[in-house]
Amino acid sequence: MINAMIFAAGLGTRLQHYTKNCPKALVSLDGKPLLEHCILKLKAFGVDRIVINVHHYADQIEAFLKLKDNFGMDILISDERELLLDTGGAIKKAKSLFIPNAPILIYNVDILSSLNLEDLLEAHESKQALATLNLRAKNTNRHLCFNQQGLLCAWKNDATQEVKNVNESHLNSSAYSFSGIHVIDSSLLDLIEEEGVFSIIDLYLRLAKDYPIAGYYDDSDVWMDLGKPEELLKAETILKKLSKD
User: Fold this and answer.
1) Helix pair angle (117-127, 34-45), 10° resolution
2) Euclidean distance between CA atoms 43 and 32, whole angstroms
3) How many other C-beta atoms can be found within 10 angstroms of the C-beta atom of residue 76?
4) Which of 45, 138, 185, 221 is 20 to 30 A removed from 96 (C-alpha atoms)?
5) Residue 42 CB neighbours (<10 A)
């Protein structure tokens, strides 16, 4: 058994006019909402339950899922209408909605990726990690550092010079971008002490002091953050090309 959670509650402020009257999750890409692309990828992978968090225009997302009859899947809503909880807070709130004792695959709704999810899950299980983060080559100022054993050891922001170190192994570490796709073991849910609004990255950095938070490097052909209009248009071109090949 395996759960999935789609982070779909974001305001989508970077998408400007696209999200003026529509949640980011329902912005269209190649004729289908971003949420539909995510759900179909997770369905093809074979997840048993999907939890979707909602906030911005939540009613539209619920209506869309009803119209599509939940794509024939077991889909539950984690309601954040009253307060947007950030990634860590969202997972904590959704705890009771997951199938117990089953891993949880986390997927950002505004990510387009050709990652083989089976490979990510196998890597997670082989390392017996508390969480496994999908990584890409560094293309951002903010990045995660993993030591020679492939375990999380630091977070850094090159633009501000801010650093959050886990332990001394960061001195011989490698820096990567976090793709927005990760797998967590169900036991992690009971280790969350944080309250309210908080980032999953801050949670990982705290837990990495005592538990293995692993990285899985992904060099598949397609990975895009669709948070900006220009990236959305670029993705349209890529998908049309792939459909012709």
Assistant:
1) 60
2) 15
3) 15
4) 45
5) 23
